[in-house]
Amino acid sequence: MFVDFKQVLDSIHPKLPFGLAQSGKAFRNEITMGKFTFRTLEFDLAEFEYFVKPEEWETHFEYWKKEMYQFALSVGIPAEKLRWRSHSKEELSHYSSRTEDLEYEFPWGFKEMFGLAYRTDFDLRNHIEKSGVDLRYTDPYTQEKFIPHVIEPTFGLSRLLTIILMNAYYEDVEKKRVVMKFPKILAPYKVAVFPLVGNKEEISTKAKEVFNLLKGQVNTTLDERGNIGKRYFTQDEIGTFYCVTIDYQTLEDNTVTVRDRDTMTQERIEIDKLQTFLDK
């Protein structure tokens, strides 16, 4: 992204502050692998290089701290499992004058999940010195030329996946079931549609009608295998948020049973109000 900085300036003429982002594979050979995908030689990484005016870096640093924290909450990570930790002078990378890690409380203690670094003008200044190419930014209003400073939010995607899985996993000892308590936005399926029995054509046909009604609106699956109790537990194990059951009463009054994954409570909902209920 620093190599392409001049092309970005010359092609789209962005105004500060602006960011460039990338996601891809990263490799490290100096680590000891372990703890599932917490520490691996190959992992997925996403990061921004956010270019700002030198005198405004603290404002943007605080902005990204809030955004990264809110993103962690949005994927279902509880606030009590998170903390920010500032790097000491001895820990700071050679390019950074301030770095903070958003840490998650793993079973083995608080460890880094995301990182946020203030890279100053280290990268662009060194590219200028080594290449001789002018990478200064020209203010469109004052015509002042200067080297932008950089705020770098970094997200370890492989590690985040580990955290989401660990945080969602729940063993319900009382009900003898395993539940993946994903937030709605991450659940592979938001809804599973069941016919109560598979040998009644009217019920099976109605279940397919409800499935077709919902599948274009939310991630929905149709599950007709085995008995309904096993189907409930199967959907719990993959994190499906709601189970919608079509039964004999459905044929009489056009209502269905909606079961909540986490509480296991059930409600009767009219089919024409089902979409509104699921969107809550």
Automatic annotation (TrEMBL):
InterPro entries: aa-tRNA-synth_II, aa-tRNA-synth_II/BPL/LPL, Anticodon-bd, Anticodon-bd_dom_sf, Gly-tRNA_synthase/POLG2. GO terms for molecular function: ATP binding; bis(5'-nucleosyl)-tetraphosphatase (asymmetrical) activity; glycine-tRNA ligase activity. Signal peptide: none annotated. GO terms for biological process: diadenosine tetraphosphate biosynthetic process; glycyl-tRNA aminoacylation. Coiled coil: none annotated. Residues 16-195 form the Aminoacyl-transfer RNA synthetases class-II family profile domain. Keywords: Aminoacyl-tRNA synthetase, ATP-binding, Cytoplasm, Ligase, Nucleotide-binding, Protein biosynthesis. It comes from the Bacteria. GO terms for cellular component: cytoplasm; extracellular exosome; microvesicle. This is Glycine--tRNA ligase. It comes from Candidatus Collierbacteria bacterium CG22_combo_CG10-13_8_21_14_all_43_12.
